[in-house]
Structure formats: structure tokens, C-alpha cells
């Protein structure tokens, strides 16, 4: 195992983890604050990628296209909350699952009708399309470093908003005592609308960041949603800190497992058996991690403590 390969895979795992954090942060806010299971969060990730790709193509400028696309993701989040989700907020979880699954079907088919099934290319900025030499022998893509920087910046911004602002105080209070917060004159529905729309914009930002690296297509949010739920469960429902730690853990475990599982298995079994078992094992590692965390802390690493 070379140092160049190890550092490269560590950075890839960090980059994947921070993309997952952008998705999981909005998911855990909606789940923790509103007690709402939103299966359509992956659709918002997909819509963000499409909106940014479309706006970049229309304006010819990545920065302006990104800004317009994120505003569009925010507006779509508000529209979906107003049309669909607010009517499911006070329903039981089964109705929320069925309702949001219906949103997945409708929105996905709508995107197919508008854009077709062929993947849509999202060009990255020319200035950020090259590589930078981190140390001799390791040239790392600039765009992946940008994703890492954006993810860390958003994590710091979320920490500040949640723990150092009045709005964050209301969000934390509304997640545990919505009745009392409402009695104090706070419009809970408007607070929930803000949380949902902000979560949709974060998912859209994740889609925009991942867009130049993956295929922008109608089902791109499906696998991301599953892994984001794993992140939320590991970190603890409603915890931004938990989403951050859980996302980094999942990103690193998944990336390093896929890169080195076969080589590690060759130490204890023959080459052909390792080649067969390695990919299967690496695809299960994040779920093994989730099972281990739940065995030790059923509410997640930073979830609410049970009395």
C-alpha cells in the first residue's frame, strides 16, 4: 500500500463524506425538528443537480448558475412543503412514507418527461477543472478539494446558525417542545417551512457539488438517500454534529473499504476468493458500522439520551 494511494483515498473518503453531510444535514433537521420522514429528500438532491446544470448552461457562468440553481432549489422546497408536506406533518409516519414516496414517483417521471433519460452533463469551471500537486507523486483534482472546502464551510455555518443565533435557538426548542414555542407566539408552521426549505437547498447544493463528478440523471438521488439515512442513524436523529461525524465515518469506511478490502482479504485467503469476497464485503461495511453503533448507542452517537 503506497502512501500516495492511501492519502488519495483518504481525501476521496473525506470528499464523499462531506457530500453526504450536505444531504444528511437537511434530512436530520427535518426528521429531528418536524418528526417528519421525508423519502423525497433524494429527489431534492437530484433536482438541485438538474437546476444548477440547466442554469449553468443557460448563463454560461458556473458561479451565477450555481446561485440561481440554489435559489431554485429553495423555491421548489417551499412549493413542495406548501403543496404536499405540510399536510403530512401531523400524520403518522406510515402516511408520511407513502406520501413522500408518491412525490418521488411524480417528480422523477416529470424530470424524465422534461429532460429525458440520458445523463445530463454538468461542466465544472475551467479554472477548477485541473489538478494540484499536494506532494511529489500525488496530483489531486481541484474540484474535489473545492467540495471539501465547501462542505467544511457549510458545517461551520450550520454550527453557528444552530448554536449562536436566535433562529437556531427556536429550531432546537421547536424540535423538543413545539407546543411551548407556539404558545410563546412563534409561528411553528413558518419555522418548519424554513427548516424544510433550507434542508432542500442543502440537498440541492450537494447535488450541484457532485454533479460534475457523477451522471446527472433522474434516479441519481436514490442511492444517496439510503446512505444519508445510514448517516442520520449513526450520528443521531436531529444532531448536526452527529450528521457531520456520521457522514465522515461513512465516507471514509466506504471509500477505504472499496479501495483496500481485496488487498486485506488476500492476507487471510487465496487471491480468487479475496477477489470474490472483497467487493461484497466492501458494499456491506457501512451497514456493519451502523449495526455496531446501534449496538453500543441505540440512539446514535449524538442522539437524544433516553430516560
TrEMBL record:
* Molecular-function GO terms, alphabetical: transmembrane transporter activity
Database matches in InterPro entries: ABC_transp_permease, BCAA_transport_permease
Annotated GO biological process: amino acid transport
Q: Which GO terms describe its cellular component?
A: plasma membrane
Q: Where in the cell is it found?
A: Cell membrane
Q: Which residues cross the membrane?
A: 12-31, 43-60, 66-85, 97-122, 142-162, 191-214, 226-253, 274-296
Q: Name one Pfam family in it.
A: BPD_transp_2
Q: Report membrane topology.
A: Multi-pass membrane protein
Query: What is the superkingdom listed in this entry's lineage?
Result: Bacteria
Name the UniProt key words of this record, in alphabetical order: Amino-acid transport, Cell membrane, Membrane, Transmembrane, Transmembrane helix, Transport
What family does this chain come from, according to its entry?
Belongs to the binding-protein-dependent transport system permease family. LivHM subfamily.
Its protein name is: Branched-chain amino acid ABC transporter permease
Which organism is this protein's natural source? Azorhizobium oxalatiphilum
